[in-house]
Specification:
Number of helices: 10
Number of strands: 16
Radius of gyration: 20 Å
CATH superfamily of the largest domain: Medium-chain alcohol dehydrogenases, catalytic domain
Shape: globular
Structural class: alpha/beta
CATH topology of the largest domain: Quinone Oxidoreductase, Chain A, domain 1
CATH architecture of the largest domain: Alpha-Beta Complex
CATH class of the largest domain: Alpha Beta
Bound molecules: NADP nicotinamide-adenine-dinucleotide phosphate
Length: 325
């Protein structure tokens, strides 16, 4: 018998239950993965609350790392005994072991521990497409604005931006997080709870504004993000940690300087297997070589998922969080 977190209705952290579950044999195209570590992501809270739709009852979790214990017919990308990691649907990573589609499984290179892998696929692949795909004109010397700079995506983004020569204005909620962001390469700190973000961005950029804002906070930062952009700049709304963004008024985009807005999802930047392999290769390469350090700053047991979600939503975490299985 295996164990998993299941939820039967959308709601607060207490809807999650630690239960015994049956894990069957893998069918065609499937693999049985025994988890070593599982990623805790903000997206998990969106599924739990119902912001992202999920059929109920269901498992939770979209990221894990472990060992392949069995494969079904037709599986060629992984074999029994492989060290693998993945991110994406279907839900169910919060489990000791699971049967899942084999296609999303990535082999983890030697030199990268599986707990590190569980902390970096979702956040690292997201950073990869944010910095390498979504605004191809980004170049060394540019200055961008990144919200929640001390978070899981934030610390990976800061290090990767430094490798590209891109300067980052990072927002954080307190001094301790500012210290962590600075230590990972953040060039300018803005305290978004008590400073006018757009005003500070204009001061730092000599009045011009930034070409791109990477905004995972959503409701609380949306207006300031738009006002921080230079003419024809791009607002990347890639998360809603503070709540969903308001409806977009297209005329405001014209008035504020012919701005662009996108609301991307990682799945659309991983759908093409070649692109997925390219982005994963870059990410694994940086981590294996020590150019990007994955900071696993919180570790939980899976049965403590309720506390883990409370900490993440309560802004108590920095860097990446995982469940150790
Ligand atoms: N679209 C995609 O493809 C994609 C993929 C992966 C992740 N994401 C998004 O990227 C973001 C970062 O994910 P993560 O797992 O690395 O989380 P995280 O950044 O480690 O945690 C969220 C952070 O957001 C900040 N925040 C600001 N207002 C908040 C509020 N009202 N409630 C909670 N947090 C608030 C907090 O930092 P401060 O205390 O410094 O404010 C908090 O630590 C999430 O929004 C996630 O949904 C998007």
């Amino acid at each position: 018998m295996e164990n998993a977190i299941r939820f039967y209705q959308a709601g607060g952290p207490d809807v999650m239950h630690w239960e015994e579950v049956q894990v069957g044999e893998p069918g065609p195209g499937e693999a049985l993965v025994r988890h070593v570590a599982v990623g805790l992501n903000f997206a998990d809270t969106y599924f739990r609350t119902g912001l992202y739709p999920a059929a109920l009852p269901n498992g939770l979790g979209v990221e894990g790392a472990g060992i392949v214990e069995a494969v079904g017919p037709g599986v060629a990308n992984v074999a029994v005994g492989d060290r693998v990691a993945y991110t994406g649907s279907p839900l169910g990573a919060y489990s000791t072991a699971r049967v899942m589609p084999a296609a999303p499984l990535l082999r983890v290179p030697e030199g990268i521990e599986l707990d590190t892998a569980a902390a970096m696929i979702m956040r690292g692949m997201t950073t990869a497409y944010l910095l390498r795909r979504i605004y191809p004109a980004l170049k060394a010397g540019d200055t961008v604005l990144l919200h929640a700079a001390a978070g899981g995506v934030g610390l990976i983004f800061l290090q990767w931006a430094k490798l590209l020569g891109v300067k980052v204005i990072g927002t954080v909620s307190n001094e301790a997080k500012a210290e962590i962001a600075r230590a990972h390469g953040c060039d300018h700190i803005v305290y978004y709870g008590r400073e006018d973000v757009a005003k500070r961005v204009r001061e730092i950029t000599g009045g011009e504004g930034v070409p791109v804002v990477y905004d995972s906070v959503g409701k609380d930062t949306f207006a300031g993000s738009l006002d921080s952009l230079k003419r024809r700049g791009l607002l990347v709304c890639f998360g809603t940690s503070s709540g969903p963004i308001p409806p977009i008024d297209a005329m405001q985009l014209a008035i504020k300087g012919s701005l662009f807005v996108t609301r991307p999802a990682l799945a659309d930047y991983m759908a093409d297997p070649t692109e997925r392999a390219e982005l994963a290769g870059e990410l694994f390469g940086h981590v294996a070589a020590g150019r990007i350090k994955i900071e696993v700053n919180q570790r939980y047991a899976l049965k403590d998922a309720v506390q883990a979600h409370k900490d993440l939503e309560g802004r108590k975490t920095t860097g990446s969080s995982i469940f150790v299985v």
